[in-house]
Design brief:
Number of helices of chain C: 8
Largest interface: A-C, 69 and 55 residues
CATH topology of chain B: Rossmann fold
Chains: A mainly alpha, B alpha/beta, C mainly alpha
Order of helices and strands of chain B: EEEHEHEHHHEHEEEH
Family (chain B): Belongs to the ABC transporter superfamily.
Helix content of chain B: 25-40%
Number of domains of chain B: 1
GO molecular function (chain B): ATP binding; ATP hydrolysis activity; ATPase-coupled transmembrane transporter activity
Oligomer: heterotrimer
Largest sheet of chain B: 6 strands, mixed
CATH class of chain C: Mainly Alpha
CATH topology of chain C: Arp2/3 complex 21 kDa subunit ARPC3
Keywords (chain B): ATP-binding, Nucleotide-binding, Transport
Number of domains of chain C: 1
Strand order of the largest sheet of chain C: 1-2
Number of strands of chain B: 9
Helix content of chain C: 55-70%
Distance between the termini of chain C: 16 Å
Number of helices of chain B: 7
CATH architecture of chain B: 3-Layer(aba) Sandwich
Pfam families (chain B): ABC_tran
Number of strands of chain C: 2
InterPro entries (chain B): AAA+_ATPase, ABC_transporter-like_ATP-bd, ABC_transporter-like_CS, ABC_transpr_CbiO/EcfA_su, ECF_ABC_transporter_ATP-bd, P-loop_NTPase
Shape of chain C: globular
Strand content of chain B: 25-35%
CATH class of chain B: Alpha Beta
Strand content of chain C: under 5%
Amino acid sequence: MIAGLYIKGNSALHRAQAGAKILAMVALGTGVFLIPDWPVVGLVLISVIALYRVCGFGWPVLAAQIKPVAWLLAIFFAVQLWLNDWQAGLLVITRIAAIVMFASLVTLTTKTSDMLASLERAMRPLKPVGVNPEKVSLAISMVLRFIPVIATVASEIRDAQRARGLDRSILAMIVPLIIRTLKMADDVADAIEARSFD
Amino acid sequence: MIRFENVSVQFDARRALEGIDITLGEKRIGIIGANGSGKSTFVRLLNGLQTATGGRVLVDDLDPAKDGRKVRRHVGFVFQNPDNQIVYPVVEEDLAFGLKALKLPKDEINRRIDEILARYDLSAFKTHPSHLLSGGQKQLLAISGVLVMEPRYIVLDEPTTLLDLRNRNRVERAIADLDQTVITVSHDLDLIAGYDRVLVFENGKIVVDDIPAKAIAIYREMMA
Amino acid sequence: MKTKDIVYIALFAALTAVLGLFPPITLPITGVPVTAQSLGPMLAGAILGARRGGLSIVLFLVLVALGLPLLSGGRGGFGVMIGVTGGFMFGWAISAFVIGLLIEKFWNSLNVVNAALSIAFGGIVVLYALGNAWVAVVAEISYWQATVGAAPFLIGDVIKVAIATAACLAVRRSYPLISKSA
């Protein structure tokens, strides 16, 4: 099975309820957009960075979270500098960094299974409007089950296409992949029904 | 007891089965025939995966077309490709899948899972990702997923086609040890050689209904 | 919703994840990385239709939100989802839905032209409208400026529209999944 992005630990944040962490994330995300001063948002960002230390994560973990957006932040800062002033630039990038860092922290400190359990709880009130939590769980499990199967089929097709000299064509790969996996999906649906699910 | 009363199945343009009248009460029934002869359609009628367009099917006096859910509890179905039958990413989750649908208590679910894993030497793989099992282990897991439901009938649709010889033999032994009534569709003629009764399908009809030795001999001649 | 629909939804969510495993191609001159993953929403909408296609991308996003590294480059979690490119993430689900809606509308007379236009409208116009709006808000720039900034990525998307169009038409011939009455 695919490992989640969770990193083991025993901090208060690790032990906190997944739902509570998600609510905190939404609150922080909204909050930093309501604050118009970069020093205040900067303080929020510093607190978020401090939380990484509290959770026992070192600098490499921290850097890995911000790296994917680093170049975007640089561009945004430059654009603000050009359009307005450096204060506006700092406000934009501290805000984004605080949100991204905190959101990543929620993911890093919460097991996929706990996240799933909260999702199932959150879905329960939606039952009357036609959301069936069991079917959603089934679908989630099936995706995890399908990923390695599709990856295997993809590499089989790639080998077969390579033997025919078609290895550069994405289309020659995707069409047979879709058709083969759709046939598989029909069989899986039969198998689920045969195992008395409805 | 399984009864087919003048059953036919019509697909859009093609007649897949025609006027099937038969009663099956033996413990081991083999079904053979060329591709497209109607044998898969025949067994899919047994649990309502396919519904008859004419006549009716009765499994222990229940019609799969009407009481699909009830019938499926008693008719387990093992498909050719275990990859398409294993629904969950972890072995024990997959085994629990059908049992949860039956709304059994948790300890009963666990008891059945442990028992079946021990039976097929899969206990060590209980929490393993299902896609990392070998082909033979996957087919045994697929069979296990059906057996934990404790069905009275087990239908196997070409269960050994994708397996190597060693795994084929493992699956053959596993099938031989089953207490249930077994209906096997197979191109692997050795697999059904020791059965009680063999049906040969051709063009949507049962053309031979005999003991394996005779049925297989006639089939070989037909295919020559 | 039938069992088969649930399986198809899961299948295209998984397919989108697998497309993220393919290494990105870097376009010459601009240096913009093009990943195969954004083909997922186009294919889901064009092959499964609006409802199932949209739900399959929602399902994919749920798995990403749960903390699984299914986005290309092994990324995942809330950080990417509500970060700068969040609008594109949620936009994927909407674009799959819109593509599905249009393909369903044209289903009986589907050809290269209307299929490509449907996929381009959902997969480029709708997607960038949402994605750029999000970027404009978080970066405090105008919508126009965000659009200019996103322009280099369009080349990759045009290629993907072409691939998705061809795939959709090929699959329609051998495995039509959108009902003719729709």
